[in-house]
Write a structure and sequence with these properties.
Elements: E1 2-10, H1 14-22, H2 27-30, E2 34-39, E3 50-57, E4 60-72, E5 76-82, E6 86-97, E7 100-111, H3 119-140
Length: 143
């Protein structure tokens, strides 16, 4: 299993940061490793909302369908995704702080079936990918 956890400060309020990040189609704006991201259903973002994120792996794309499994505005949102190769749980928490809020992004990524053999390598790659996403979050949450 690979895990990446980071806390960043945002000049946005917890409400605004929550609204932006709970709509996971925003992933393509802040994660350079997301080739595409879109909402798969309609209506307000809520528990059960679904998103398709295509992770760029070199020239290949890995589609991950994320579902919101915890939705507690403006405090916490959790997404789960499963593909034939990977299982992912991403939890984002928000807490008011000074002129904005602190955002903690905690992601667990685990290989499935035979791909689980690559978990040690996945940890190394996930840190690099996480650092790039962190930089994008800092940029987008402090505009």
């Amino acid at each position: 299993m690979a895990r990446y956890r980071v806390t960043i400060h945002s000049t946005l309020s917890a409400d605004a940061a929550f609204a932006y990040l709970s709509d996971f189609s925003s992933t393509r704006e802040w994660d350079p490793n997301a080739a595409d991201a879109k909402r798969l259903d309609d209506g307000p973002v809520a528990l059960g909302s679904k998103f398709l994120v295509e992770a760029a792996l070199g020239k290949r794309r890995l589609p991950l369908e994320y579902t919101i499994t915890a939705f507690e505005p403006p405090r916490r949102v959790q997404f789960r995704a499963t593909s034939s190769l990977l299982a992912s749980v991403d939890e984002i928490t928000f807490s008011p702080s000074g002129d904005g809020c602190d955002v903690t992004y905690d992601a667990d990524l685990k290989g499935r079936k035979w791909f689980a053999l690559f978990d040690p390598f996945l940890s190394l790659v996930f840190k690099r990918i996480g650092d790039q996403a962190r930089d994008g979050l800092i940029r987008e949450l402090n505009k």
